[in-house]
Prior knowledge:
Elements: E1 2-3, H1 12-17, E2 33-34, E3 36-40, E4 58-62, H2 69-77, E5 83-87, H3 101-110, E6 116-123, E7 126-127, H4 136-153, E8 157-162, H5 165-177, E9 184-187, H6 197-201, E10 206-212, H7 213-216, H8 222-231, E11 237-240, H9 246-264, H10 268-283, E12 299-300
Parallel strand pairs: 1-7, 3-4, 4-5, 5-6, 6-8, 8-9, 9-10, 10-11
Antiparallel strand pairs: 2-12
Amino acid sequence: RLVLGLGLGLGLTAALRWGHTPPPAMAAEAPQLNLFDAHSHAGLHEETRERVAQLKCAAAIMGTQEGDWDVVQRSSEAMPNVAVPAFGVHPWFAHRAENGWIERLRLRLASHPAALLGEIGLDKAARTPETRRCEYEAQQEVFAAQLALAAELRRPVSVHCVRSVGKLFGMMEAGAAAAGLPPAIALHSYGSSPDWIPRYLALPTELYVGFSYAINGRENQREKLLENIAVVPDDRLLLESDLECPLDIEEHLRAMCAIFAEAKGWSLEETAERTWANAERFVAAGGGGGVDAGRSATDCG
């Protein structure tokens, strides 16, 4: 069982603690690639905050709870041409949501027209440090409220799902039947069965599927990962890092880019171009404009 720490710990530190395989070292002759990280937590930890300005690639920076929304805002403002902010309440912290949180989230999004809503979702494996149990009811209430808000405000969402693929799908179906769904939904670091992907793709929204080396890159998961990538349509595949430290993001993105290329039969350059275009469509799905695509500002390598 996963008992959550009090810190943010959502990226590289979590990956190392859970024994995930670090990415292979980048070759000295590695080609330049234009990479778009569709799900990061760049700069959320105090020790990495000052390094956000060094982030070379485009990135969506995800919030996890109300207490870090200001940090997300400052991080995105430090590099306005290459970062998209996302504000939301992660399922790990749903039980901490205080009275009025959804209205404060609404106001935050209203003041940032290009912002996404994320990271949100369900996690049946998580145990909180306060209660040492899974606060699944609170997760569902908070997720449902955010899904409805994203649909109302027409904002794309990035969704975390652990041991909840059926429940999550049912809640999305219910949302579609009620007030509708957000304009775009990204299933973040997807690790469930490939059989579920076509069902999610059939929902009345622009459905994307993302994968990160930190979460999906373990060698004992490689066969399943390749199966999942193969099922995702070419124009719905997203590259993610799920990391906090900007200095580690490129290495992780390149490692996952190589896996995508293997699964799809693409070159590294084509993989980077395709996933960049997909991420741009995802973040712009709500009409907020997304990221300035000037390649000279975002070349990695």
